[in-house]
Amino acid sequence: MDLRHLRYFVAVAEERHFGRAAERLHMAQPPLSQQIRQLEAELGIELLHRTTRRVDLTEAGRAYLERARAILTDVDEAAHHARLVAAGSVGHLAIGCVGSATYSLLPALSRRLSEELPGVDFSFRGEMLAPDQVEALRTGAIDVALLRPPAADLSLTVHTLRRDRLVVAVPVDHPLARRKRLRAADLAGADLIVHSADRRSVMYDLVLGLLRDAGVEPHIRHEVGETSTLITLVAGGLGVAVVPEPVTALTLDGVAYLPLAGPDARVELAVAHRADRSEPHLERTVGIIRAAF
After folding, report:
1. Top-confidence range, 64-68, 86-90, 188-192
2. Which domain holds residue 262?
3. 187 and 260 both lie in a single domain
4. CATH of the domain at 96
5. Beta-strand pair 219-224/191-195
6. Which superkingdom does the taxonomy of this entry point to (predicted)?
7. What is the Cα–Cα distance from 104 to 73, expressed in whole angstroms?
8. pLDDT band of 176, cuts 50, 70, 90
9. 165 touches 259 (CB < 8 A)
10. How far apart are CA 285 and CA 254, in angstroms?
């Protein structure tokens, strides 16, 4: 069925007059009348009673009008939705965040995404270690990741956003808390709380590398999976922890944050997604995230 025939019929049926319907459709009356007769011939039924002054619907015409309006409404809504999809204005995305991004970046980022892409349904997963994020990207459990490189996976597209300084979280009554800044060598003999080695944390490898480069043999007291747990243990006096500076947004009584000196005392933050994903709403989201840094 030609949708033009439906639109022509609906116009005539609503105007009850070929002349007014032709004006509404911006076409001449004779071609319009011909199109309606062609429609009736295809259907094998009479839809309209015609007089010199007006047009009335037959019983079949009234039934056909109701269905024709519904079809045209569905077609128009489908076209509108398709345009929104093409513009990246609708869809669903799950975003996974490392612990430091969960506290420092996620509140402002979620507001910005909601404001700029109100038609996209966003969900967020916080406190994810980078290896877990990479696996979640592979399986589709999340669509976008804010993670700490390296993400050595050729199936991913990774854009570095910034390099965060490292700080040392220490209990406020710890001897190191009296310092203004610390070096990696100052952590010799200190009980360390680190992200889990079993879960292949990027921070675990980075922190141990910094300490060993400074000639410090790490004394690990606790390994944890979540940044919030790590800082809670510091507040409880169980040790010190090297963390990205954005973690300082997580304020707890009993914790002091001290800058860690040294040119290598930084860690990258990146946004990643699967390289084979190019949906408009995903690309717009990644663009918004990159523009925010």
Report:
1. 188-192
2. 161-267
3. yes
4. 3.40.190.10
5. parallel
6. Bacteria
7. 45
8. very high
9. yes
10. 38
The conformation of residue 202, written as its DSSP 8-state character, comes to H
Over residues 180-199, mean pLDDT: 90
- CB distance 155 to 138 below 8 Å: yes
- Using CA atoms, how far apart are residues 143 and 120, in angstroms rounded to an integer? 13
- Tokens coding 228: 């919030």
Q: Is the pLDDT of residue 1 over 70?
A: no
Q: Tell whether omega for the bond before 218 is within 30 degrees of 0, i.e. cis.
A: no
Specify the number of domains making up the chain. 3
Are 86 and 280 within 8 A, CB to CB? yes
Shared domain for 141 and 79, answered yes or no, is: no
CA 223 to CA 238: how far, in whole Å?
A: 12
Task: Say yes or no: 130 and 154 in one domain.
Answer: yes
Last residue of a domain, one of 53, 86, 119: 86
Between strands 219-224 and 156-171, the pairing is unpaired
Q: What are phi and psi for residue 241, nearest 5 degrees?
A: -145, 140
CA distance 8 to 18: 10
Query: pLDDT per residue over 47-72, tens digit each?
Result: 999 877 788 999 998 999 999 898 88
Helices (H), the chain: 3-15, 18-25, 29-43, 59-86, 99-104, 106-116, 130-139, 202-213, 227-235, 280-291
CATH at residue 67: 1.10.10.10
pTM, two decimals, is 0.73
SS3 51: coil
